[in-house]
Amino acid sequence: MLFGHTLADRSGTLLAVDATVCEIMQREERELIGIGFEALTHPGDCTRNVTALASLRIGDAPLTIRKRYVRPDGSAIWSNVQVSRLQGSDGGRLVGTIHMLKQDGLKHDPESLWRAARLVDSRIQRRRRALGEDLFMDHAWLILVQIYLAEAEGRTPDAATISGLASIQLPLVNRWVAVLEQKMLVEQTTYRGAVPQLTLQGMRAVEALLDSDLDC
Question: Which of 12, 21, 119, 179 could pair with 37 as two cysteines, CB 3.0-4.6 Å apart?
């Protein structure tokens, strides 16, 4: 499992990278320093990436972005990038941790899994509207899917936001998040209020279920 670290200025121009980032990108350090993240990002992910970073403020919870990097040979590799904006005289520094995704045991790529999660959310919401919430109350799964979608789309929703997206009352969201924490599927940051995020175990569990759904 590869984890690399980067330091960039407020606009995303790289100031420092470690050896693992060079390995992930298949580039020398001198090729990466001074380049903006847009130049390394797959065109299909660039707009979403720029929008997500623009919304990140100093002191916010770390932002998780799922994206593709383009290597010199033209191949694209999927990564989860966790970014924080730190205090600085020029508007702050961006500190990133890059985790290259390996689809161990999964048959489908991250984009297909994201689309499957969107479909799961849509189907559950339609059933609840048509037949009533008392018949379809899979709150834990719906909350996990909302967190998964948020991380894939570069958002950091708190419990209140998840409550609105999932149409689940906030006290219920808080109770289920506590249960999911006990199961080690979710953890909460403590920056400016708790922000639920999937643990590595939680990410693997959600993706395994989505992967199997795509085979049905």
Answer: 12
**Tally of CB atoms within 10 A around 104:** 8
Domains of the chain: 3-100 (3.30.450.20), 110-214 (1.10.10.10)
- Laid out side by side, the sheet with 3-8 consists of 14-17, 3-8, 93-100, 76-86, 63-70
Residue corresponding to tokens 């924080």 = 84
Instruction: Please state, in angstroms and rounded to a whole number, the distance separating the CA atoms of residues 43 and 37.
Output: 11
Closest listed residue to residue 120, CA positions, set 102, 143, 154, 152: 143
Q: What is residue 91's DSSP assignment?
A: S
pLDDT score, position 97 = 92
Reading the block at residue 65, the tokens are 């972005």
The C-alpha atoms of residue 49 and residue 46 are separated, in whole angstroms, by 5
123: tokens are 């189907």
- Specify the pLDDT at position 3: 86
214 neighbors 114 (Cβ within 8 angstroms):
no
Question: Token match 């298949």: residue?
Answer: 26
Q: For 120-133, how does the pLDDT look when each residue is reduced to its tens digit (9 = 90+)?
A: 888 888 887 787 77
